[in-house]
Amino acid sequence: MSPNLSFLENVLQEKYPLRICPLEIVLFSFGPRSQCPPLYIDDVFFTCNQSEDKVKEILDAANNFHPNIELEYKIGKCAPFLDVYVENNNGNFVSSVYHKPSTESTVLSFLYDHPRHVFRNVIQTSLNRAIRYSSTFDIFNHERRAIRLMLLYNR
After folding, report:
1. How confident is the model at residue 24 (pLDDT cuts 50, 70, 90)?
2. Which of 71, 115, 130, 147 has the fewest CB atoms within 10 Å, i.e. is most exposed?
3. 21: pLDDT confidence band, cut at 50, 70 and 90?
4. Of 34, 25, 35, 33, residue with least CA distance to 5
5. Residue 35 half-sphere exposure, CB side, CA atoms within 13 Å?
6. b or e along 40-71 (b: 16 or more beta carbons within 10 Å of the residue's beta carbon)?
7. Is pLDDT at 131 greater than 90 in this prediction?
8. Is 68 in a helix, a strand, or coil?
9. Are β-strands 84-89 and 92-97 bridged in parallel, bridged antiparallel, or unpaired?
10. pLDDT value for 142
11. Taking the CB of residue 120, how many other CB atoms lie within 10 A of it?
12. Where are the alpha helices (H) located in 1-155, listed in sequence order?
């Protein structure tokens, strides 16, 4: 368990007794837990059936718990989380690969003399991300075409 999640639990338990805590946190990991080491200990994604005002109240209480800790949150039907884009589509979660707008479209120049396995790894990693993060076959095909175009336009 990450230190920040433990911190958030302590704040919630202090503010609300365990029996009447209005927030149930459901963490999502894309893949088996044994394959996902806790590399990102500062990022948390959760869903909640409470009203948006109630969730904001709880998160603001957690944010005011200590002056040196600042929590940022985004509430909505869709959110980018690390390199995954998650959307709530009428109660069904749809996920795809998230591409930050500020990133370059090229990954590794084929003009330089890199070892061959490096080029193979770029392609394999991109396809693995598409397979793991795409919740439907159509989303996977869209991402596969984007990877193909990225590699075609790569210099």
Report:
1. very low
2. 115
3. very low
4. 25
5. 5
6. eeeebeeeeeeeeeebeebbeebeeeeeeeeb
7. yes
8. coil
9. antiparallel
10. 95
11. 10
12. 3-15, 52-63, 116-133, 137-152
Q: Is 144 helix (H, G, I), strand (E, B) or coil?
A: helix
Residue 30 reports pLDDT greater than 50: no
Q: Cβ distance 122 to 132 under 8 Å?
A: no
Q: How confident is the model at residue 130 (pLDDT cuts 50, 70, 90)?
A: very high
pTM of the model: 0.63
Q: In this model, does residue 58 exceed pLDDT 90?
A: no
Distance of CA 40 to the CA centre of its chain: 10
DSSP state, residue 19: G
Read off φ and ψ for residue 124, nearest 5 degrees.
Answer: -65, -40
Q: Roughly what angle, to the nearest 10 degrees, separates helices 116-133 and 137-152?
A: 160
Identify which of 22, 88, 25, 18 has the alpha carbon closest to the alpha carbon of residue 57: 22
Residue in the block written with tokens 């039907």: 77
The identity of residue 107, as a single letter, is V
